[in-house]
Write a sequence for this structure.
Protein backbone atom coordinates (compact mmCIF):
# COMPACT_ATOMS: atom_id res chain seq x y z
CA UNK A 1 0.00 0.00 0.00
CA UNK A 2 1.01 3.58 -0.46
CA UNK A 3 -0.26 7.07 0.19
CA UNK A 4 -0.59 9.86 -2.37
CA UNK A 5 -0.82 13.32 -0.83
CA UNK A 6 -1.78 16.54 -2.57
CA UNK A 7 -1.28 19.31 -0.06
CA UNK A 8 -2.50 22.89 0.20
CA UNK A 9 -4.42 23.17 -3.05
CA UNK A 10 -5.57 26.78 -2.96
CA UNK A 11 -8.94 28.02 -4.19
CA UNK A 12 -10.94 31.20 -3.94
CA UNK A 13 -14.57 30.18 -3.59
CA UNK A 14 -17.92 31.34 -2.23
CA UNK A 15 -18.79 28.82 0.47
CA UNK A 16 -20.14 29.70 3.89
CA UNK A 17 -23.18 29.92 6.09
CA UNK A 18 -23.41 33.72 5.97
CA UNK A 19 -24.72 35.52 2.90
CA UNK A 20 -21.69 37.82 2.94
CA UNK A 21 -19.36 34.81 2.58
CA UNK A 22 -21.31 33.67 -0.45
CA UNK A 23 -21.01 37.12 -2.06
CA UNK A 24 -17.46 38.16 -1.12
CA UNK A 25 -15.88 34.71 -1.08
CA UNK A 26 -12.86 33.44 0.81
CA UNK A 27 -9.60 31.57 0.40
CA UNK A 28 -9.66 27.81 1.00
CA UNK A 29 -6.83 25.27 1.27
CA UNK A 30 -7.55 21.61 0.55
CA UNK A 31 -5.41 18.55 1.35
CA UNK A 32 -6.16 15.17 -0.19
CA UNK A 33 -4.73 11.80 0.87
CA UNK A 34 -5.44 8.70 -1.20
CA UNK A 35 -4.40 5.23 -0.09
CA UNK A 36 -3.87 2.70 -2.86
CA UNK A 37 -1.87 -0.39 -3.81
CA UNK A 38 1.22 0.96 -5.56
CA UNK A 39 2.90 -2.36 -6.39
CA UNK A 40 1.78 -2.47 -10.05
CA UNK A 41 2.73 1.12 -11.02
CA UNK A 42 5.97 0.81 -9.04
CA UNK A 43 6.89 -2.16 -11.22
CA UNK A 44 5.50 -1.00 -14.59
CA UNK A 45 6.36 2.72 -14.37
CA UNK A 46 3.14 3.34 -16.35
CA UNK A 47 0.65 6.08 -15.56
CA UNK A 48 -2.31 3.92 -16.58
CA UNK A 49 -1.44 1.56 -13.70
CA UNK A 50 -1.39 4.38 -11.13
CA UNK A 51 -3.88 6.69 -9.47
CA UNK A 52 -3.58 9.84 -11.57
CA UNK A 53 -3.23 12.72 -9.14
CA UNK A 54 -3.78 15.27 -11.91
CA UNK A 55 -7.30 13.85 -12.22
CA UNK A 56 -7.68 14.07 -8.44
CA UNK A 57 -6.68 17.76 -8.51
CA UNK A 58 -9.16 18.47 -11.31
CA UNK A 59 -11.96 16.77 -9.34
CA UNK A 60 -11.23 18.83 -6.21
CA UNK A 61 -11.03 22.04 -8.25
CA UNK A 62 -14.38 21.34 -9.93
CA UNK A 63 -16.09 20.64 -6.60
CA UNK A 64 -14.67 23.79 -5.00
CA UNK A 65 -15.85 25.94 -7.92
CA UNK A 66 -19.06 24.08 -8.78
CA UNK A 67 -21.60 25.68 -6.48
CA UNK A 68 -21.91 27.27 -3.08
CA UNK A 69 -22.13 25.10 0.02
CA UNK A 70 -23.06 26.36 3.46
CA UNK A 71 -20.83 23.89 5.33
CA UNK A 72 -17.32 22.53 4.91
CA UNK A 73 -18.76 19.09 5.69
CA UNK A 74 -20.94 19.30 2.58
CA UNK A 75 -17.96 20.22 0.40
CA UNK A 76 -16.00 17.32 1.92
CA UNK A 77 -18.75 14.82 1.11
CA UNK A 78 -18.99 16.11 -2.47
CA UNK A 79 -15.22 15.80 -2.93
CA UNK A 80 -15.15 12.24 -1.52
CA UNK A 81 -18.10 11.21 -3.71
CA UNK A 82 -16.46 12.64 -6.83
CA UNK A 83 -13.00 11.17 -6.12
CA UNK A 84 -14.43 7.67 -5.72
CA UNK A 85 -16.58 8.16 -8.83
CA UNK A 86 -13.63 9.31 -11.00
CA UNK A 87 -10.72 7.22 -9.71
CA UNK A 88 -10.43 3.48 -9.16
CA UNK A 89 -8.14 1.42 -6.95
CA UNK A 90 -8.53 3.53 -3.82
CA UNK A 91 -8.84 1.92 -0.40
CA UNK A 92 -9.11 5.12 1.63
CA UNK A 93 -9.46 8.83 0.92
CA UNK A 94 -9.08 11.68 3.40
CA UNK A 95 -9.89 15.29 2.59
CA UNK A 96 -9.15 18.32 4.77
CA UNK A 97 -10.71 21.66 3.87
CA UNK A 98 -9.47 24.85 5.54
CA UNK A 99 -11.37 28.12 5.38
CA UNK A 100 -8.82 30.89 5.84
CA UNK A 101 -9.64 33.91 8.03
CA UNK A 102 -13.20 32.77 8.86
CA UNK A 103 -15.66 35.41 10.12
CA UNK A 104 -15.57 34.43 13.79
CA UNK A 105 -15.34 37.84 15.44
CA UNK A 106 -11.60 37.76 16.06
CA UNK A 107 -8.28 36.87 14.47
CA UNK A 108 -8.25 33.18 13.48
CA UNK A 109 -5.90 31.71 10.90
CA UNK A 110 -8.35 29.05 9.70
CA UNK A 111 -11.02 26.56 10.57
CA UNK A 112 -10.90 23.08 9.08
CA UNK A 113 -12.86 19.90 8.59
CA UNK A 114 -11.28 16.50 7.90
CA UNK A 115 -13.29 13.59 6.54
CA UNK A 116 -12.19 10.04 5.68
CA UNK A 117 -13.93 7.36 3.68
CA UNK A 118 -12.68 3.78 3.39
CA UNK A 119 -13.89 1.17 0.95
Amino acid sequence: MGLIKIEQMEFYAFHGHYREEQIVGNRFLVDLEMETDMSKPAESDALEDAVNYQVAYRVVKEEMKRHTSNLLEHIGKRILDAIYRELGGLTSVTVTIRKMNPPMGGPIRNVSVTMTRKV
